[in-house]
Amino acid sequence: MSSVAPEQVADQAVVDDGAAHRESIWAKAVYKLRRDRLGMIGLGVVLLYFVVAIGVWLGIWATEWGDVEGPKWAPMSAEYWFGTNIIGQDIFARAIYSTKTAFEVGLVVAVLSTIIGALLGALAGFFSGTWIDEIILWLKGVLDSIPFYLFVAAVAFALTGNPYAMHIAMVSTFWTTTGRLVRGEVIKLKNFEFVEAARAIGVPQVVIIFRHILPNTFHILLVQATIVFVAAIKSEVILSFLGLGVQDGVSWGLMIAESTQEVLAGFFNNFVWASVFLFGLVMAFNMFSDALQDALDPRKVASE
Amino acid sequence: MEVLQYAIRKLIGGIPLVLGVTFISFLLMVYFGPDKTYELLGKNPTQEQIDEIRHELGYDKPFMVRYGEYLKEMATLDFGASDSTGEPVSKVLARTVPISLALITPGFILGNLLGILLALIAAYHRSGPIDKYIMGFSVVGMSISFLIVVIAFQIIFSSSYGLNAFPVRGWNVHSFSDYLRYITVPTLATVFVALGYNTRFYRAVLVEEMTRDHVRTAKAFGTRPGKLLYKNILKNSMIPIITRIMFSIPLVVVSGSLIIESYFGIPGIGKVTYDAITTGDQPILKAVVGLTAVLFVITLLITDILYRVVDPRVSLK
Amino acid sequence: MSSEHTAPLLSVRNLVVEFSTRYGPVRAVDDISFDVYPNETVGIVGESGCGKTVTGLTLLQLIPMPPGRIVQGSIKFDGRDLTKLSEKEMQEMRGSDISMIFQEPMTALNPVFSVGNQMIDVLRRHKNLTRRQARELAINMLDTVGIPAPRKRIDEYPHQMSGGMRQRVMIAMALSCGPKLLIADEPTTALDVTTQAQVMEQIVKLQDEFHMSMILVTHDLGVVAESCDRAIVMYCGNIIETAAIDDLFHKPQHPYTRGLLDSIPRIREERVAELPIIRGIVPDLLHLPDGCRFADRCPRATDECRKDKPVVNIDPVTGNGVACYHPMG
User: Fold this and answer.
1) ipTM here
2) Searching chain B, which residue's CA lies closest to the CA of residue C160?
3) Per-residue pLDDT reduced to its tens digit, C98-135
4) Chain B CB contacts of C92 below 8 Å
């Protein structure tokens, strides 16, 4: 025991006492998270954005995002808080409306790629060393070797007219990291006693995977989902600029893409406000995601 | 000899990967890709004319035959001529790849070197104020979209609203000073964005290595903190560092150059590829995707050999 | 050994080491005092978590700070108070005047440098030597600690060596600059039994040759009996007994020491129905009782024990002492 680092020794002494401090990983995580000031600020900001998005979705505000009524390139005023764009649309309404778009993209991509990553990762891990594992690893390798923007462009053109081409392309490439992490964790978990015990008493493999193994990877999934959410929002901006992004509606990416024509003429409102909204959400999400990683995984490992 | 045998084994092992990449890209870009039939026809074509064009383009052949032809072109490196310009693909590549490399290499190297440097400084001052500033900067860097940085830097450096010191766009390079003028703004933008992610990653790697037993041993023998960091810790961290750098190469070459080249109007491989996607220029697409996959396999190989160099425990088996 | 006439080489007084944890500060070492005389071997014994390893690391200020912190006390070594030295001066001290060897020879050496490279670094850090001179000296040291073909072995990497061999390399490294004090933290625990004996024998032999003092941190009373002059028994961050080795094994004073000795299985003794164990569990360092920390597990405990903490009273003649109101006879 004496080889462990002293802080572990001290910690050990704390943990060894059963009754007082035997908490689940989740109770500990919530405790740590709540004491992480930056993380809680991040979460607060994300929730604020979420409320804005819900309001848009319910049609409470920013309904006039598409109206072409104002003068061209109006400055900031009481009527147009953030001014207007090249065709006289209200930039404030468009920036607010784009919050909904961002959450749509982020949530759809994060949820779907996490589910796919969890399933394929768990399958590969549970059947590690067999042909199932080989095929999933091969697929992951192949998807990782195609340059991302090329892949999205290819999907977009192959599915011409499909408004979800971007989402499909992101989901099909973003699951791979989650899949790899889950696979590693499942390989570790499947040698644990509770899994062996389940197998010994004849529990079917499907049940073992879904009832006994996957729930134990939930902390990885949660952290990965936040990371994918941020990646999706950021990718949307680039893709919208390339003309491969959001097809109907408006997004911060589209606003920034629009603004590339305006900034050289000296009109910065579109660019600045879309950037500020985007940065605020991504930064807040990153802060929250960091705190979540710290809370759920004390030995945050960076290596591949 | 051992290395050569290993290399051959590894390259053969890369075949399924190349097949997979080419298959998926063939499926998306060629089979379901843009149909060029009507672009090449006049108004009100007859059915015969349509059939003739489709035959010429090879659209009437069965799926596997077309994929087979694609693979044959890959293996012989004979990609024919670009559909849009008629220029041989090999010539297009020879013209554009050097431009892209010249454009992204300085930023790539600087982004990684500065990232490691900042990470070393942050790790050295772990938990102190300097560490907090550096990590704060890196989270901010991670949160700003590449596109925003590119636009902002263009305004700041290249427009009359800012310094107006560098060309706004294009690639009119005839001398080394031209070259520096054209790459400065793209390079600054690339470095700014890469630095956030790199610093954070490298710091995490270094800090994890700092908690190892052998670091405590070195400390117990009086090793100075500076030496501890650059000798003991840095060399031990080389495996994840090399992995990250090497694996980003194939992606940076195409994806990284794509955004910069389209925004700054630089005629590199990224822009050519993007144009090829939008126009369905299949010979170019085949070449780019195929060669990227091969580049990946070669990267995997070189990475493994580099592991052997930095870590004596790794054997080439 | 603890004579009145020689001055101690190391003199620890009222040392308190705290770690801040999520649940508040934890005193891993709580007000301990002890001396180590020249050429003496002192064992620090106790269960895991008792503070013995932290004590060893604190002497060289190797505990991570933060979260660790020396709250009070002094560590006088060769006339200087180590707690008052600057980090720079401390670095000079480490590996030259005081050396330390660790439990895990597998991970304690750097895997990506050859053992020679690591030894040469240490030698050149503390002595004014050329690379070539340092290499020769390193080869000599490897020979001294019993590594065969040292000239060839010096260029090998740690993973090419056996556990016993690696630990010998550690010892060679530790002794290479001629330290006055060696701190050995469970030096043989990770080795297999036959290697353990050989390595321990080597350490004791070299200690004589090099005229060093040694602090042997271990949970293994057998090792202490064979190689130490005196032992310190720690429990929950406190020293509860200190005695010359013969006295400790034949007339243990503290009920806890007695319990530890009783729980060693002995060969060639009358069969006992059951190996005695110490009942109860070690208290949590965050919620320590006011009185004697062993009271809850102690068969002799009285109300007095639960009220006030007993302190170690050192007998000026024998140098022995125990922190107990009801010592064993």
Assistant:
1) 0.83
2) B313
3) 999 888 777 888 888 999 999 999 898 888 888 999 99
4) 222
Report the pLDDT averaged over residues C25-47. Answer: 88
Domain positions in chain C are: 10-235
Closest residue in C to A31 (Cα) is C22
In this prediction the pTM is 0.82
Query: At residue C271, does pLDDT exceed 60?
Result: no
Min distance C27 CA to chain A CA atoms (Å): 8
Question: Domain limits of chain A?
Answer: 6-65+93-303
Q: Which residue does chain B place closest to C66, by CA atoms? A: B127
* 8 Å CB contact of A13 and C28: yes
Residue of A nearest to C57 (CA): A6
Which chain A residues in 196-255 lie under 8 Å from chain B, judged by CB atoms? 234, 237-238, 241-243, 253
Q: Of chain A residues 281-300, which have a CB less than 8 A from chain B?
A: 282-283, 286-287, 290, 300
For residue B28, the chain A residues in CB contact (below 8 A) are: 151, 154-155, 157-158
What SS3 string covers chain A? CCCCCHHHHHHHHHHHCHHHHCCCHHHHHHHHHHHCHHHHHHHHHHHHHHHHHHHHHCCCCCCCCCCCCCCCCCCCCCCCCCCECCCCCEHHHHHHHHHHHHHHHHHHHHHHHHHHHHHHHHHHHHCCCCHHHHHHHHHHHHHHHCCHHHHHHHHHHHCCCCCCHHHHHHHHHHHHHHHHHHHHHHHHHCCCHHHHHHHHCCCCHHHHHHHHHHHHHHHHHHHHHHHHHHHHHHHHHHHHHCCCCCCCCCCHHHHHHHHHHHHCCCCCHHHHHHHHHHHHHHHHHHHHHHHHHHHHCCCCCCCC
What domains are defined for chain B? 89-310 (1.10.3720.10)
Is A6 at the interface with chain B, CB within 8 A? Answer: no
CB A205 within 8 A of CB A126: yes
Neighbours of chain C (3+ CB pairs under 8 A): A, B
Q: How confident is the model over C173-221, as pLDDT tens digits?
A: 888 888 899 998 888 877 787 888 888 888 888 888 888 999 999 888 8
Fold for the domain defined by C10-235: Rossmann fold (3.40.50)
Q: Among 1.10.3720.10, 3.40.50.300, 2.40.10.10, 3.90.79.10, what is the CATH number of A6-65+93-303? A: 1.10.3720.10
Q: Does A19 touch chain C (CB under 8 A)?
A: no
